[in-house]
Write a structure and sequence with these properties.
Alpha-Beta Plaits, mainly alpha, 2 domains, 285 residues, 2 strands, globular, single chain
Length: 285
């Protein structure tokens, strides 16, 4: 089921964050004033079209300098995004999330909603956030570990830059080859699993997940209308049950459950108290 309105919003958000069109032809990275501002989603600073900075890259750079200063601006901005929207950013504003959605729409022999070990793998992104984004960059100065060794958005940026500037192709070594393999694995997995990078690896999604239950924008379930029919759980690509936990940390608030509920029991709200399917405060699962 494709939500055309959401797809349009995702496409516009991706374009606005990468509107430096000339960069795709010249291979030159935009270095204007926009790069002082972090965009909400995962969008590499080095993308030839990027007009803003990636919050993950900015956070790593802030904690990896020799003379450490608490990253008030970057962390404060990320907390503002999280407290306002939670993982709705993942569902609507993240360019790499949009790419995964497009890949999942490609026909594949089998689509996997979940599998053995899926629940445990989802904790991996918190490990990546803690160690590769914070601890290791802090310990090894000027080394943004996640950007350097994992980030698929950065790899895409490198591919686009090398396509526009042949000189870059001559200096790419084993590290870039490794990252291309990581990107290829994510691309292939995205055709069979909805948003595997978001579910298992993305540290930005892990950060926003911490705010999902308290953010201003959230999902609510009307206790009078919900009959626990399970339709919302069946359509959820993130494999959560919105009726039981409408603000689960894995929910990217794509809105599929809202549109699919036959009784209109689920809706987006702002600044309201989280309510479970039976009209009581929702429980963590």
């Amino acid at each position: 089921m494709v939500d055309k309105k959401r797809t349009f919003i995702q496409a516009v958000a991706a374009f606005l964050q990468n509107a430096h069109i000339a960069g795709f032809f010249t291979g030159r990275i935009y270095d204007g004033g926009g790069k002082r501002i972090c965009v909400p989603g995962l969008n590499c600073y080095s993308c030839p079209g990027a007009l803003g900075a990636c919050p993950l890259g900015s956070l790593q750079n802030a904690v990896s300098v020799w003379k450490f200063r608490f990253p008030c601006y970057v962390l404060g901005l990320m907390m503002f995004f999280g407290a306002s929207f939670g993982r709705l950013i993942c569902g609507f504003l993240c360019p790499f999330g949009f790419l995964q959605d497009m890949l999942f729409a490609v026909p594949a022999p089998k689509k996997l909603r979940t599998f053995r070990g899926d629940g445990y793998l989802r904790y991996l992104k918190y490990f990546v956030l803690l160690f590769m984004v914070i601890i290791l960059p802090f310990a090894y100065k000027y080394t943004p570990f996640f950007c350097k060794y994992v980030c698929p958005s950065g790899t895409l940026s490198g591919i686009l830059l090398s396509a526009a500037d042949s000189r870059l192709r001559d200096i790419m070594g084993w590290l870039f080859t490794w990252k291309v393999l990581v990107l290829a694995a994510i691309v292939l997995a995205s055709m069979a699993i909805s948003r595997p990078f978001c579910k298992y690896i993305c540290p930005l999604g892990a950060f926003y997940a911490l705010f999902n239950r308290v953010s201003a924008v959230r999902l609510n379930v009307d206790r009078e209308k919900c009959v626990n029919c399970g339709v919302c759980a069946e359509v959820c690509d993130m494999a959560v049950d919105p009726a039981a936990s409408p603000n689960h940390t894995e929910c990217i608030r794509c809105g599929k459950c809202v549109k699919s509920c036959p009784h209109g029991a689920i809706c987006f709200t702002a600044f309201s108290k989280p309510v479970g399917a039976r009209g009581v405060p929702e429980k963590k699962v």
